[in-house]
Write a structure and sequence with these properties.
GO terms for molecular function: ADP-glyceromanno-heptose 6-epimerase activity; NADP binding. By secondary structure, the chain is an alpha/beta fold. Strands 3-2-1-4-5-6-11 form a seven-stranded parallel β-sheet, sandwiched between helices. It has a two-stranded parallel ribbon with strand order 7-10. Strands 8-13 form a two-stranded parallel ribbon. The longest helix has 22 residues, at 84-105. The protein has a domain at 2-170 and 218-243 and 285-299: Rossmann fold (3-Layer(aba) Sandwich), CATH 3.40.50.720. Helix content is 34%, strand content 16%.
């Protein structure tokens, strides 16, 4: 059996679809299933078992010999939450227990880290282990992810294989429940449908034009393909970036969303909210040599093609993957 935590969430549920398509029949999903907004993400999926997040560590000792792999995708991902206690409980405490269980029962593990660990990028976007202690994330979410990475790298006992995947800006189907934290593509689509316009954050730095802020946007279908590769190939354990390696502007993103709807762009700029303005990343771009050196040869979907698929085949129909 394969265990996926955060299974009812955005990336977790898309990963389950990918595993099912590849013929994996015994998938155990772990999450807080009381949150009804995520229910559609698992509808119609054939699953071996559903285990509440709070009961997982009671369930695992009875079933550990049946588990062949764990994907720990579950986390609190709200970058506007500034109560560090929330992240210490879920992103640190719970993750440490998952790691320790995988060590005890000798189960391979892939877990979700984040490009938020890189902060403003003063040390670059290299997934080298020697810079992890120097990184300065801009918000408690990024801090929690980096603190877990640091803790992992300090452990003498490890699972038989492990990888911490530093997700960059992931977008795609099944993020309907994420509210403010959903991708800019999701919000742009809804703004266009409601007002005919897209509103983007104005730049508050002289070295970036309005809409010229750059991010490494990666389609969720590419993300889950890489996650499956890590499970199947199990290269050298460690931290790995997971982006496209090509930064694009928010203006490009908005223009591609209009194009997917066969509309001419109509973009206006608004001030970045004061509560996140000094925590805002103006540039991210994954350095992808480590993943390539590990043997991953797949192409990454272009921003235009990814948005076209997402808008036309999912958002336009309110469909799930």
């Amino acid at each position: 059996m394969i265990v996926v935590t955060g299974a009812a969430g955005f990336i977790g549920s898309c990963l389950i679809s990918k595993l099912l398509e590849s013929g994996h029949q015994e998938i155990v999903v772990v999450d807080d299933f009381s949150k009804s907004g995520k229910a559609g993400n698992l509808t119609g999926k054939s699953l071996a078992a559903r285990v509440s997040r709070s009961e997982f560590f009671d369930w695992l000792p009875r079933h550990n010999k049946e588990i062949t792999f764990v994907f720990h995708i579950g986390a609190r991902t709200d970058t506007t939450e500034f109560n560090m206690q929330v992240f210490e409980e879920l992103n640190l405490g719970y993750s440490k227990k998952v790691w320790e269980a995988c060590c005890k029962y000798r189960i391979p593990l892939v877990y979700a880290s984040s490009a938020a660990t890189y902060g403003s990028g003063e040390y670059g976007y290299h997934d080298r282990h020697d810079i992890v202690d120097q990184l300065r994330p801009l918000n408690p979410y990024g801090i929690s992810k980096n603190e877990f990475d640091k803790w992992v790298l300090g452990q003498s006992e490890t699972p038989p294989f492990w990888a911490g995947m530093k997700f960059f800006n992931v977008y795609g189907p099944n993020e309907y429940h994420k509210g403010r934290m959903a991708s800019v593509i999701f919000h742009s689509f809804n703004q266009i449908k409601q007002t005919g316009k897209v509103r983007l954050f104005r730049s508050h730095r002289p070295d970036f034009t309005d809409g010229g802020q750059l991010r490494d946007f990666i389609y969720v279908k590419d993300v889950v393909t890489v996650l499956e590769f890590m499970m199947n190939k199990r290269p050298q354990s460690g931290l790995y970036n997971l982006g496209t390696g090509k930064a694009r502007t928010f203006f490009d993103l908005a223009r591609a969303t209009f194009s997917a709807l066969n509309l001419e762009p109509d973009i206006e700029f608004i001030d970045t909210p004061a509560d996140i303005r000094d925590k805002y990343q103006y540039f991210t771009e994954a350095e992808m040599n480590k993943l390539r050196s590990a043997g991953y040869t797949g192409a990454f979907t272009s921003l235009e093609d990814g948005i076209s698929d997402y808008v036309r085949n999912y958002l336009a129909n309110n469909s799930y993957r």
